Amino acid sequence: MENSQRVGYQFIKSPSCFPPFSIAAICCSNASETAPFPTPTSQPAMPGLSSSRLKSMDFYRKIPRDLTEASLSGAGLSIVAALAMVFLFGMELSNYLAVNTSTSVIVDNSSDGEFLRIEFNISFPALSCEFAAVDVSDVLGTNRLNITKTVRKFSIDHDLRPTGAEFHSGSTMHLIKHDEYVGEHEGESSVILNARNFDVFSKQFPILVVNFYAPWCYWSNRLKPSWEKAAKTMAERYDPETDGRIILAKVDCTEEGELCRRHHIQGYPSIRIFRKGSDLRDEHGHHEHESYYGDRDTDTLVQTMETLVAPIPALHHKLDNSTQSIKRPAPSTGGCRVEGYVRVKKVPGNLIISARSGSHSFDTSLMNMSHVVSHLSFGLKFAPKALVDAKRLMPYIGRSHDRLNGRAFVNQRDVGANVTIEHYLQVVKTEVVSRRGSRDHTIIEEYEYTAHSSLAESVDIPVAKFHFELSPMQVLITELPKSFSHFITNVCAIIGGIFTVAGILDSLLHNTIRLVKKVELGKNF
What family does the database annotate (predicted)? Predict the structure, then answer.
């Protein structure tokens, strides 16, 4: 027993007597006995997670490249998958950069109050600026006649070309004073003019005052006694034969229609003042004669004629200021361009343009209300930048903002006389709102409308009528913002989905090819 232990001890102490592998085996078998002896390579354990435990959390364990196998089918699928990823990424990026909007219909909550602005620019080739008037009415009883504060008028020819500066016609709506005659007047002292002698008299006398009248006209008949009496008084004071400075005449427009049209007479009676030697237009482009809009009683007529005669000997003297308000340049052409704006209540109403005067009559059978709409819009003007921003959200917005612009409505007189041209407009408000950031920002508020036009015979004076009706609802267009995180999520889904599907397809294709090869070799599987 002692010998065996000694032999064993000597076996440990004398390792050189045995092969090297025996030493390793013995050390492993007697590890428990040799544990008290510390080895030079042992180290204390590190606190916390070790590198081996951290590596165990790796989701993407690497396979040595030598253990993988490349194939042509996998390469083809990889190319297709890469192209699909690029294509779908581009589509997703385009969708992210595109603008999305939502359209809803809500009750009108306008911030511009209860009034609406209507802007217009309309040309009438056959309506004189002398009598052109703009009226507004609505269902609530509002009736505004001959609006002048926000309306401007310019004389135009038949080709719609302007012939001068702004035409200031003044008010023709005030009450004109007439003489009150109980019986018939005696005699006719004014000279009767026609197309043959008109030019002769206009060149012979420095001042020629002409009354263009119609026998059927009420106002012409009211003026006739005063006119004849004033003509007699002026002839006695300034004898046409010896003095020859002024003469009063008259033209019957029912007999001399062409002469009256040549001087753009559209209302009766029309008093024109012709001055000898003033056949050239002045710097403002006014015509060579003036219109008289003053009272029509004998005393006022005589006083006005006296004022006209007074500066004849000394032409450098100015006329009395008292006559400037009753004499204005006559229209140089028979057409008129009416432009400006009016404010109306947001209820159904009418914008009417017609010939209007409180002291003239009109031959309705000769009136032609043909017109060209250069501009007609509702609401305030908006800046071009605002319209560009709105079109970014809604490309087709603004197409119905001025639907009638550039359209001509002409009465060819094939429907008879007394023709009124009427437009029926249905107006809807459109509001574009951008939601960028935490607050809503209104980009634009505009009123769009549809228009239906017709020609109809009227028993009254023909007019151009724009009947508008506002909808109680409004269209709200809202920009829908897009989340960047949503875009990133979609991109990841595209890449991961294509990669996964491509891997499944590659596995199926690879296994199928292997199966076909085994069948060809006759192997059992």
Answer: Belongs to the protein disulfide isomerase family.
Query: Please, which residues have CB within 8 angstroms of residue 62's CB and are 6 or more apart in sequence?
Result: none
The whole-chain average pLDDT of the chain stands at 77
Residue corresponding to tokens 């437009």: 423
Give the mean model confidence (pLDDT) for residues 210-235.
Answer: 91
pLDDT of residue 371: 92
Lowest mean pLDDT among 15-24, 111-120, 177-186, 339-348: 15-24
H/E/C letters for each residue in 110-135?
CCCCCEEEEEEEEEECCCCCCCEEEE
Cα dihedral across residues 197, 203, 206, 209: positive or negative: positive
Collect all residues with Cβ–Cβ distance below 8 Å to 200 and sequence separation of at least 6: none
| Residues with catalytic roles | 217
Contact assessment for residue 251 and residue 193, using Cβ atoms and an 8 Å cutoff: yes
Q: Is 367 exposed, middle or buried (0-12, 13-18, 19+ CB in 10 A)?
A: buried
Q: For 265-277, what is the HEC assignment?
A: CCCECEEEEEECC
User: Residue 37 pLDDT more than 80?
Assistant: no
The torsion defined by the Cα of 86, 92, 95 and 97, in degrees rounded to 10, comes to: -80
Could you give the percent of the chain with pLDDT greater than 70? 74
Can you state the angle between helices 298-309 and 218-237, rounded to 10 degrees?
Answer: 50
Question: Quick check: 436 pLDDT over 70?
Answer: no
Distances (CA, A) of 129 to 113, 134, 265: 33, 11, 11
Cβ proximity of 131 and 481 under 8 Å: no
The residue type at 366: L
Tokens of 367: 């009136």
Sign of the Cα torsion 308, 310, 312, 317 reads: negative
The structure's pTM equals: 0.64
Classify residue 213 by burial, with Cβ atoms within 10 Å: 0-12, 13-18, 19+. Answer: buried
- Quote the Cα angle for 476-478-482, to 5°: 165
pLDDT, tens digit, 9 for 90 and up, residues 383-415: 666 666 666 666 656 556 678 888 998 876 555
In this structure, what are the phi and psi dihedrals at residue 456, rounded to the nearest 5 degrees?
-145, 145
Q: What is the rounded distance in angstroms from the CA atom of residue 525 to the CA atom of residue 522?
A: 9
Determine the Cα–Cα distance for residues 93 and 81; give it in Å rounded to an integer.
18
Residues facing 213 on adjacent strands: 252
The residue behind tokens 């482009």 is: 285
pLDDT band at 309 (very low <50, low <70, confident <90, very high): confident
Backbone angles phi, psi at 77, to 5 degrees: -65, -35
